[in-house]
Specification:
By secondary structure, the protein is an alpha+beta fold. It has two domains: 89 residues, no CATH class; 138 residues, Jelly Rolls, CATH 2.60.120. Helices cover 30% and strands 40% of the residues. Strands 5, 7, 8, 10, 13 and 15 form a six-stranded antiparallel sheet that branches. β3 and β4 form a beta hairpin. α2 packs across α3. The termini are far apart.
Length: 286
């Protein structure tokens, strides 16, 4: 009898256990959603203290305008906050400054940052002043500016061109890596190399530059890379291969002061490499 009674009890419990499991399975997602919702509420309530509002940006921008002088660079950090910064101080950032090669030629740099971020343009520099406005930190930096002896972007349209090209060179303010870049743009024929011969230039101690593929739509449609080679007196002193996902790729070369022949080779790598909008900038510096 006891065994039959136990069997009867177990049989009666099976539907209850099954129902409990079913309920738990149905309730679990709801519990998870409630936990996620609670976490989002906490994060949202804390967000205003972490992300400066419009008033804070307005105060920071007003402080910069008081002491800012024409020709002084303004940068924002982290990079994704750049549109917000330009909304408040865009009139002080002309197109050539927005598309600059780097910050080396600017004697004064104003940095507006949030969440403790720093701009690569101020790396290694010490702030001469720093103030905070509701989460926006304004720092002012000073440096000895680089002396630019020649700008290859400005010289590109007058350079002697050798090789098969679809178009260019032209001077553009182009999108490369989802950021503006003032550059010389040229489109080689697929699989071809085009040489820009700048003739003899007076060189200092270095040439600094950057290169990449312009236009997100042609980058999306064609995945073939490009190549740049910088030559001085016929010898390659810097070379970069850059792909669709590489953005703006920097290069630099030490040079011997004096007059030297300078060339830039641009290649659309691959027989299918059509519409490679190769965009480069380079400065000869003392």
């Amino acid at each position: 009898m006891p065994r039959r009674r136990d069997a009867t009890i177990r049989a009666a419990l099976r539907p209850s256990v099954a129902a409990a499991v079913t309920v738990a399975a149905r309730v679990a997602p709801a519990v998870i959603l409630l936990a996620v919702a609670a976490w989002e509420i906490v994060v949202t309530r804390g967000a205003p203290g972490e992300v400066p509002d419009d008033a804070a940006w307005g105060q920071a921008a007003a402080a910069v305008r008081v002491d800012h002088r024409p020709g002084e660079l303004i940068v924002f950090a982290p990079p994704w906050v750049d549109p917000v910064g330009r909304m408040h101080l865009g009139e002080l950032i002309p197109p050539d400054m927005a598309g600059r090669l780097d910050a080396a030629r600017y004697p004064v740099i104003w940095e507006l940052s949030i969440r403790g971020a720093r701009s690569p343009d101020t790396a290694g520099l010490r702030a001469v002043s720093s103030r905070s406005f509701g989460g926006v930190t304004v720092r002012r930096f000073e440096q000895a500016p680089a002396e630019v002896l020649a700008d290859l972007v400005a010289l590109a349209p007058k350079a002697t061109v050798r090789g098969k090209r679809a178009r260019g060179p032209t001077v553009e303010l182009a999108e490369v890596g989802f950021a503006p870049h003032r550059c010389a743009q040229l489109v080689p024929q697929p699989g071809e190399t085009v040489t820009l011969d700048f003739g003899r230039l007076t060189l200092g101690g270095s040439i600094a530059g950057g290169v990449g593929l312009a236009d997100v739509f042609t980058r999306r449609d064609v995945r073939d890379p490009g190549r740049l080679a910088l030559k001085v007196d016929g010898e390659v002193v810097a070379e970069r291969r850059f792909g669709v996902d590489d953005g703006w790729v920097r290069f630099a070369a030490a040079t011997t002061p004096g007059e030297h022949a300078v060339e830039v080779e641009l290649e659309a790598v691959g027989k299918g490499a059509r519409d490679r909008l190769i965009c480069f900038a380079a400065e000869v510096r003392r």
